[in-house]
Amino acid sequence: MADWFAENGLLLGLALLDGLAYAALVFMVAVGLNLVFGVLRIVNVAHGSLFAIGAYTAASIGIFFASRGLPPWMSYVALVLAAVAVGAVLGPLIEKLLLRRIYGHEDVLQLLVTFALFMILEDVQKLIWGVQPISQDTPLRFLGTVDVPFGEDVIPFTAYQLFVLPGVAVATLLALAWFLRRTLTGRVIVAVTTDKEAATAMGIDAARIMLLTFTFGAGLAALGGALASPTTALVPGVGAQTIVLSFAVVATAGLGQIEGAALTSLLIGLGRSIAVYFAPEFEVVVPYLIMVAVLLVRPQGLFGVIETRRV
Amino acid sequence: MTEAVTRRATLLGAGATAGSLLFAGSGAHAQGKPSELKVGITTFLSGSASVFGVPAKQMGELLFEEINKAGGIGGVPVRPIFVDEAPGTDHLVGEFRRLVQNEGVQLIFASISSGSCLACTPLSDEMKKTTLLWDCGTQRIFEEGSHPFAFRTQGYGTPEVLAPLLYLLKHKPDFRTLAVINQDYAWGRDSWELWKAGMDALKPGVRVVAEMFPRFGATDFSTEVTRLLAARPDVILSTSWGGDLVTLLRQSAERRLFERSTFVLPIAEASMQILGRTMPAGHIIGARGDHFNNHPSPKDPARLKRFVDMYRAKYNEYPIYPCHHMAQAISAMQAGYAKAIAAKGGGWPNDQELANAFRGLTFDSPTSTITLREDGQGLEDQIVGLSSFNDKYPFAVPKDMILFPAAMVSTPVGQKSTDWLKTLKPEILAQVPAPIAG
Amino acid sequence: MRRESLLAALGAIGLVACAWAVPWLKFVLTIALAKGIAVLGILLLLRAGQVSFGHSMFLALGAYTVAFLAPSAPEVLLLLPLAGLLGAGLGLVLGLFLVRYRDIFFGMLNLAFAMVMYSLLEKLYALTKGTDGIRVARLTFAGLEPDRPTQEWIMFGIALGLAIGFGLLVRFYLASPMGRALAGIKTRETRLEFMGVPARRVLLAAYVLSALMGGVGGALIGMTTRHVTPQLAYWTSSGELVFIAILGGAGSALGPFLGATAFELVRVYAAAAVADAWQMILGGVLLVVILFAPGGIWGILARRRQA
């Protein structure tokens, strides 16, 4: 064991850096999904589509800014702008037109409404953005790279990957924690998550809270997409890939738990990157194995609360 | 046949489901000259492989329009019917049947995905319907069985991997270490197996420092790039394509991996326009054939120019290799029909006569000519070169191009590619033509 | 109840007539029947209020069983029960773990196992040929190897026969105490326990039965398409099965077959009409069904009958 570490310790260090950046992206998507699930009790399959649309929108705005000759730091404005725009437009639209009509129906119907929405949005993306890969990496190039020492060698990492992604994720986590614990609206959201019936009985306008939460969740999904957009090429199908991983995070984390989502994302991110270094064949299976392992020990998820059983 | 059709038609009228009525009656197709020549074309219209499927479809539509303006094929107007491959094999084989039995297509162009082709060729045998494999690359098709109604109108995996390998051995003969990062699906795996067999035969002792097969459609390769940066291989091979390749190359460029290793990218051509100046110069790029925009010696330069301009005028992009492959299939179809109609003294060929015409057929491609061998495999030349920039194109095109004659890099009829590659001797390098500046 | 049987009989005759009249539809309908059998399993679990979002793993298991074994044991009458048994076996192993979970955990764990299966089928390239998939070798029927058109009819017949058989089985099962207890899991599980009914065992039995039907459905798909790929196990395929269950209506054992037929026909016609936007059409159909006819096609038919 000691020998193994002596030999591979440095590599493990690199894997941790990679895993951290990946975990940040996973967290950004999963936390929105988890929040929405906590309040609305809907597993939003279309969350992945919102991620994709956020990414595409960010790339489009970024390309537009660049074509107008705006300074490169404006590309960061483009990222935020895309997230806000997608969240503010699509969030209320979806919640009011579709979800609102099926609250209280069977779970499976709610799930399928979002599945149908996912199918429709997949084609809508294709109609708007076409099929050729779209990419916009100004935010990445703006910050340049950082050389990380590796024995006698150095490994260049992009500053974006090393600082921006984890930074935004941590900031989001802290801001959310503060919002949910310290503000009135946040506490109301927590109350609805914990017990909707009791919360409504106490005079909370659940409909408003649901609209708010969904819009917020949609914005987070779009922000996740926007943040991912500079590092990747956008093609049809990115939504489907992203969402299935977020499902695993949400179930592992425990419902509605943002700290759980953070820890699970970290586990999955690190697990995956360590797998890429030492057992690449397992890379794809790692998140699911982690999920099964966690649920075996804690059937309600890492941070989940055991729900009182109804009689 | 006719009797059966009338009986079926009556029964349909009597009360089958409403849905099937929509398609009723069109099941029959006349034996003589049809009023319309229908071609069923399976391609990716959704999902990540639509980056190839949609440009090919667009090119196909332009070319069919041109053919119809010029009076069609043998005086018959042509109508393409496009079908999406993306929903999966069970759907696609159903669509193949629908195209043949219901739409009455005379000819099928099958598939980008190797999996789709492997599922469609046995159907062509069974339904005796001529099927042109217009884009898929798996060597398994004609090496694992014979398919009398299937013909591949372009090259395939073996020449597409061997040509870049030979180029690398010429360009950088002293490399000692290599890493591979391919998409985790059949082509990614097969191309690596082919490369490995060839490399072990031609240059034994190369150390493979990393074998990575990230998930097909992966959106992030930063971990893989870090590993490659740390391993410092002399050469990095990637046969990836589409969004995967674009992401991999951009992340590699940002983190200066191109300065540490020489990349060999056999399918890079289709991504060069999207990458633009991000693609560094001096790395080995291929095009799954000879269709680079700066082809040094096209057979008919005016034809190539017209082809490129036609696509650019409509879509404001240069055509990529799937557009060429589509054009090749269409050109083969024209040549095949001309030959079959001539053989029948002006009569319209039946399925068997049409298939007979394709065996040994030679037809023009936008860049050159292609001959279909007796096993159905097309012989398409391969061009490989070093990425470079000039004033004419806003994206990387090859320089120091080597044009590999198809016969030199293709497995002989009746042999299996991996077995044949193992028998290669370093002497083959002496036969490689000299590079052309370009 | 008599109306349900009448409708089933009419449906079966309609399918046969349709397959006879439009030869290429025979293939599509065979696939629809096969999927319908798998969806019967979804229906069972829905009775308990549980959604398996990974049921396509049993389809894939059945299909790959056929693909792997056909070269050495090409007998359809042997492969079908074997695929069912293997499906039930996997269902039992996973079920022992899964029945401890409810709702989203149940759904997502199923999804996780299906994704593991998908990844394995993709990754174990030497065995499975990855995403290229495996061509199913020639099959024999009771030792005979008839010509293709006859084979297609036989496959269609077998699928129809099994669909009727499993449909009846599920109907009886749902009417039995074990089936009624399923509804108890959905409404008030603790009450079941008070009455001395072990909820987990009830759910396990249903899960194993549903896995068995998934295996059989998958085997039929493999035998009909003659080519199997890992796509069968991807999460969107599982989504499709749940889609079909709702489209057809969860109220009757006839629902899955109504749903599967409608699904396959809509997909085929949508793909023929607008090859590059068929997903949108399917999604639209699903939305309309959920919003305006949550009982599915069966719900529409049943309501009309009562009116």
Automatic annotation (TrEMBL), chain A:
Keywords: Amino-acid transport, Cell membrane, Membrane, Transmembrane, Transmembrane helix, Transport. CDD domains: TM_PBP1_LivH_like. It is found in: Cell membrane. Its main location: membrane. It is a multi-pass membrane protein. It comes from the Bacteria. The chain crosses the membrane at residues 20-43, 50-67, 73-90, 159-180, 209-228, 234-253, 260-279, 285-306. InterPro entries: ABC_transp_permease, BCAA_transport_permease. Belongs to the binding-protein-dependent transport system permease family. LivHM subfamily. This is Branched-chain amino acid ABC transporter permease. It comes from Belnapia mucosa.
UniProtKB/TrEMBL annotation, chain C:
It is found in: Cell membrane. It holds the Pfam family BPD_transp_2. The keyword tRNA processing does not apply. InterPro entries: ABC_transp_permease, LivM-like. Keywords: Cell membrane, Membrane, Transmembrane, Transmembrane helix. The keyword Cell membrane applies. The chain crosses the membrane at residues 29-46, 53-70, 76-97, 104-121, 153-174, 202-221, 241-266, 278-301. CDD domains: TM_PBP1_LivM_like. It is a multi-pass membrane protein. Its main location: membrane. This is Branched-chain amino acid ABC transporter permease.
